[in-house]
Design the sequence.
C-alpha cells in the first residue's frame, strides 16, 4: 500500500514537472549558436547549418546568424541557399557590409548569369523608402504635416492680420502630407504583395501557366533572383508567379526557390 501511494506521488510530481525528464533540457540560443560556430570552424558545414536553422525556426534572428548560414552553405557548395542567406544578412546594419562583399563574390561563382534590366525610377524610389524609412514612419510624418497644415488654416481664420502667404503655406503643407500618406500606403501595398526570391536548385523551367506541360517562358538556374507576386501566386499553392531580372514574367514551382 505504501509503495502504491509512493508511486502515485511520484507520478503526480512527474506530471507537474517537479521531476525533470532525462535529456529534455534545451540549450540556450547563445549556447546553440556557439556550438554551431564550433562546427563551422571545424569544417562540419551541414551540421552547423542544421543548428543555425534551429535558431531560425525559433525566431532567434540576427545578421550574424544569416551570415554564418550563408558561409556554411557556400562551403557546402549550395550557392543558391548561400546567396539567399547573404541577402537576408544584408538587411541587418551590423552585417550589411560583410554580406554585400559575400554577395559580390558568390555572384561570380554561378555558371549561368541572368540578364538584369535596370529598375524603373519609381521602383527605385519605392525600394529606397521601404529600406530606409518604412511605411509607418511615412504615414506618421504625413499625419503630422496634415495637422500642421490644418492649424495654418485655423490661424488664418481666427487671427487677423496674418498674411495670405499663411493660407498658401497651409495648402502646400496639406498637399505634401497627402503625398506622404499616399506613398506610405503604396509602399506598404508593395511590401505586402511582392517579395524577392532566390533560385536554390540547379535548374528549373519558368512556364507561361502553372502546369508542368505548359510552354516555357525561360529557363532559370541556381542563383537567379525573382520578384514574387504573392497575389497571383496564392491562386496556385505549388507555383509562384514571378518577374525575372530580365523583365520576363512566368510561373515557377515554389519548391525551386526560397522567398525572403
Sequence:
Amino acid at each position: 500500500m505504501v509503495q502504491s501511494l509512493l508511486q502515485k506521488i511520484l507520478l503526480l510530481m512527474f506530471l507537474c514537472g517537479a521531476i525533470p525528464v532525462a535529456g529534455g533540457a534545451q540549450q540556450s540560443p547563445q549556447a546553440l549558436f556557439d556550438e554551431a560556430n564550433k562546427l563551422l570552424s571545424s569544417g562540419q558545414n551541414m551540421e552547423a547549418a542544421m543548428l543555425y536553422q534551429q535558431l531560425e525556426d525559433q525566431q532567434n534572428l540576427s545578421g550574424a546568424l544569416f551570415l554564418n548560414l550563408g558561409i556554411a552553405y557556400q562551403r557546402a557548395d549550395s550557392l543558391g541557399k548561400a546567396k539567399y542567406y547573404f541577402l537576408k544578412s544584408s538587411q541587418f546594419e551590423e552585417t550589411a557590409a560583410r554580406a554585400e562583399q559575400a554577395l559580390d563574390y558568390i555572384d561570380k561563382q554561378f555558371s549561368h548569369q541572368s540578364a538584369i534590366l535596370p529598375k524603373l525610377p519609381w521602383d527605385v524610389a519605392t525600394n529606397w523608402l521601404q529600406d530606409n524609412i518604412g511605411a509607418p514612419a511615412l504615414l506618421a510624418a504625413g499625419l503630422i504635416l496634415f495637422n500642421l497644415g490644418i492649424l495654418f488654416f485655423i490661424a488664418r481664420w481666427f487671427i487677423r492680420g496674418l498674411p495670405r502667404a499663411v493660407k498658401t503655406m497651409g495648402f502646400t503643407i496639406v498637399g505634401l502630407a497627402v503625398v506622404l500618406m499616399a506613398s506610405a500606403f503604396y509602399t506598404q501595398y508593395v511590401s505586402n504583395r511582392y517579395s524577392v526570391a532566390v533560385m536554390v536548385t540547379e535548374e528549373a523551367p519558368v512556364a507561361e501557366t502553372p502546369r508542368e506541360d505548359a510552354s516555357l517562358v525561360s529557363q532559370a538556374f541556381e542563383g537567379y533572383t525573382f520578384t514574387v507576386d504573392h497575389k497571383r501566386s496564392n491562386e496556385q499553392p505549388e507555383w509562384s508567379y514571378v518577374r525575372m531580372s530580365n523583365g520576363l514574367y512566368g510561373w515557377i514551382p515554389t519548391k525551386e526557390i526560397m522567398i525572403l
About this structure: The beta strands are 194-199, 203-207, 216-221, 225-229, 239-244, 249-253, 257-259. Residues 121 and 203 are 31 Å apart (CA to CA). The domain at 194-259 is CATH 2.30.30.40 (SH3 type barrels.). Confidence is low (pLDDT under 50) at residues 1-24.
